[in-house]
Amino acid sequence: METITRRKFIQLSSITGTFLIVGCVPGKEEATKVVTGLASQLKGINLNQFISIGTDNSILLFNHRPEMGQGTFQSIPMILAEELEVNIEDIDIHQSEANREVYGSQMVVGSRSIQTEYAKLRLMGATARELLKQAAANRWGINIKDCTAENAVISQTNGESFTYGELVEDAGKLDPPESPPLKDPSAFKIIGQPVWRSDIPLKTNGAAKYGIDISVPGMLHASIERSPVFLGKVLSFNEDEVLAVPGVKHVFKTSRQVYGRTREGVAVLAESYWASIKGRNVLKVEWDNQGLEEINSDTIFNKYRQESKKKGDELFGRGDALSILNSSAGVITAEYETPYQAHVPMEPMNAIVHIEEGRAEFWGSTQNPNGIKSFLSRQYEIDEANIKINYTFMGGGFGRRSMTDVAEEAADLSFKSGKPVKVVWSREDDQTQGPFRAASLNVLRAVVKDDEVKAVEHKVVAQEIRNQTGDSMEAGRQLMGGITTAYLFPNFTVRGVLQKHHVPISYWRAVYHSTNPFAHESFMDELAHATGRDPVEFRLNLLEHPRYRRVLEEAARITNWGEKKEGIGRGIAVVERSGAHFAMVVDVEKKDGGVFPKKITTVLDLGICINPDTVRAQTEGSIVMGLGAFYSGLTIENGAVAEQNFHTYQLLRIDQCPEIETHILESIADPDGAGESGLPTVAPALANAVFDLTGKRIRKLPVDLSVFG
Amino acid sequence: MAIINLTVNGEKKTIEVDPEMPLLWAIRENLGLTGTKFGCGIAQCGSCTVRIDGESVRSCTYPLSAAEGKSIVTIEGLSEDNDHPVQQAWIEEQVPQCGYCQSGQIMNAAIFLEKNPHPTDEEIDQAMSGILCRCGCYTRIKKAVKRASLS
Asked: Cβ(A142)–Cβ(A704) under 8 Å?
């Protein structure tokens, strides 16, 4: 059986021979300082992301961002290749190891990778290109202006040329240019092209390795029974009976931290995955669930409705919305509910950790390699230099793999057993243990007079990820994600009423942008009808922000918005997420007694688009995830999640997937985040389309559209 | 424990295992073929799909005792050089994102097209509806199955 032992990670210190190195010294993301030189001169210098060009023309890029399907594995080298004037296939990508000191943040969350790397990669590429040009110019005794770089070759007008490899040694001795010229976006040849991703062939023949595929010598497999009731404590368990199961080696109580709360479980450690499951099947744990079973989805929402009567904390304010709302008759009010959701990446959560005297090693799929390293160092008092983090492709993340809890379990069990331990969660574990996307109640109120909106209040009643424990009950700005304050209502207040209880929540793709816009953009549709205006015209009348206007106008134009089609309902929504602005039009039709989306058109303005095919893929995926969350959600019953696996928690299937069309608008602005585009608009645009066709407002998710006809 | 004889990707294999163990874990752990994935354990997601005697089978619920003497093909055995028409179509349409479910998607599509080489769009939807993709690559899967059926 194939095993991966100490996976080799190439670092600057291990590069021998003559290589031109261009890299950034660690520091604040925005304060990029480029360092250049030959590998031998730069030993001992910590470089953030760097490139290395060899005398054999080899080009290595050390990428420090993990890959979970978002496609930065390809778009990061594309940015470099553009400025360096090489072909994308000339670049060999090496995944660098986890090291906060050297690489800075390696977390892949919030659609940030490209946004934060774009300027650095361009600067590194341009610096290397200019050094190579200068080296050639010096050899020929001509001005650098008379040298051109293309396809990894520097040429002059008489046709003479040097390959990059031939210039490496000379270039490494030159001082880097102060501010190398960056290409004008109109001259881009690679950025903006739908370049094929190099990881895709590996993902069509079973060759791509994920955390769950890794096996290390001598490891034990662990399956952990955790209290189905959130926060239940272990009272006792039948250790002897479990140890009698063939292959079972140990039974340990274990725990993990989830946002400041300790979650307990009992782990069965065995020689194989199957033996750990057989052991777990005979495991009986007595739990202390006192007072924890009284929480249900119904009680949560009833409480939230009561709490919504509180004034709450102001998160955004313009004018004096409250006095107008409180002194006017005929206030329009609507309440919107969204449920808890699980992340359910297709690769179940897993981790391998080996804790030894003075050293530790991790293998697995993670969005947060540095977080795992810091945890291991802190918890087991091991110097970070002696901790190795080996990360693989992720079988999906969606926010779940930004947490380090599974590695914490594996570490605890390795510490207790003295062996490397692989923890694999079952799908039921994954779906019922959380942490989840927060459920929320949004209450919106407005005053309309003479067909004009005079005042709007948007109140969010929900738990906040950053503030789940402790006494502070002040709502934070995180709660207002996805609420468009660019709408120029003369009186507008956004308020939060913070909720605290022990259902665990965390970051889920698009975070509060996955819930608040359902309420906000549905209510805009309600107000458009209340003022007798078309939903697009209504929004345009209230928006001066050029990017919101542009995506709305383009979406209306591309979809022939004004044109009524027989039997088709249409809805629109517009949202900004991670800097990207997007408008979405959903067309629905009646079929077999229900109403179904037929076509979803998205128009995006996300600045310069590195790889349009990757952006389209991310948008398609976001739409599918958003549709799944429209139709299915988690229910809390007696302190636990009711939906155990995919038979009751329905992810979207291929036969429910409508036609999806994505338009990316031209832009020369720096790139915005693309990984969540489209998700926030699905629910409101679809609900608005259903209203257009049937006259029925959807204000509570999930909803079964098959009975809506 | 029992001795089980299997033919996997054309090679005869003998393993000594608990006969109740699902085939998936024998493929992954005993034979080291990790291309076949664990997703749900209850035959609802299809990440574990393999071909057994020409049929599309969810290996996570298929007991090893039933696999005795059967001929099994996993993603690693679908082609020599990644050149099966379905694999090629998957690359042409740039289908995978995270890639985790794709072994199951590709195996299911390949088996389906063996039985129905020229399917309609509705037949493709129906045949592929048993395989979940959380990244949401469905529009591309539809195109890729269609492309493979035309090649």
From this structure: no
Q: Which residues of B touch A213 (CB under 8 A)?
A: 28, 34
Using the beta-carbon criterion (under 8 Å), do A1 and B30 form an inter-chain contact?
yes
The whole-angstrom separation of Cα A479 and Cα A482 is: 9
The model's confidence at residue A21, banded by pLDDT at 50, 70 and 90, is confident
Flag whether residue A393 sits within 8 Å of chain B, measured between CB atoms: yes
Q: For A534-556, what is the mean pLDDT?
A: 98
pLDDT given for residue A43 in this prediction: 67
In whole angstroms, what is the distance from residue B143 CA to residue A455 CA?
48
**Class of domain A297-340+437-707 (CATH, top level):** alpha beta
Quote ipTM for the complex. Answer: 0.98
Nearest to B52 by CA among B24, B37, B73, B77: B73
Q: Are A429 and A225 in contact (CB under 8 A)?
A: no
Q: Using an 8 Å CB-CB cutoff, list chain B residues near A618.
A: 97
Q: How high is the pLDDT of residue A38?
A: 83
- The CATH homologous superfamily for domain B85-150 is [2Fe-2S]-binding domain (1.10.150.120)
pLDDT at A48: 65
CB distance A212–B33 less than 8 Å?
Answer: no
The minimal CB distance from A657 to the residues B30, B31, B138 is found for B138
Whole-number Å distance between alpha carbons of A105 and A100:
6
Domain positions in chain B are: 2-77, 85-150
Q: Is A381 on the interface with B (CB under 8 A)?
A: no
Which residue among B36, B40, B82 sits closest to A427, beta carbon to beta carbon? B40
- Nearest by CB to residue B39, choosing from A274, A346, A623, is A346
Task: Check CB contact under 8 Å for B18 and A344.
Answer: no
Measured at the alpha carbon of residue A602, what is the angle toward residues A671 and A400, in degrees to the nearest 5? 65
Helix (H) or strand (E) holding A573: strand A568-577
Which CATH number applies to B2-77: 3.10.180.10, 3.20.20.140, 3.20.20.190, 3.10.20.30?
Answer: 3.10.20.30
The mean pLDDT of A14-20, rounded to a whole number, is: 77
A89: confidence class by pLDDT, cuts 50, 70, 90: confident
User: Quick check: B44 and B35 in contact, CB under 8 A?
Assistant: no
- CATH 3.30.365.10 for the A12-203 domain, yes or no: yes
Domain spanning A211-291+349-424: which CATH class is it, in words? Answer: alpha beta
Question: Which residues from A are below 8 Å from B140, CB to CB?
Answer: 617, 620
Q: How confident is the model at residue A74 (pLDDT cuts 50, 70, 90)?
A: confident
User: What CA–CA distances, in Å, run from A58 to A35, A90, A93, A573?
Assistant: 19, 7, 11, 48
Q: Tell which residue, B8, B11, B99, B102, has the closest CA to residue B51.
A: B8
Q: State the pLDDT confidence band at B112, using cuts at 50, 70 and 90.
A: very high
A624:B138 CB<8 A: yes
Residues B61-70 pLDDT 10s: 999 999 999 9
Residue range A28-43, pLDDT digits in tens: 555 567 778 887 777 6
Chain A stretch 613-642, residues whose beta carbon is closer than 8 A to a beta carbon of chain B: 613, 617-618, 620-625
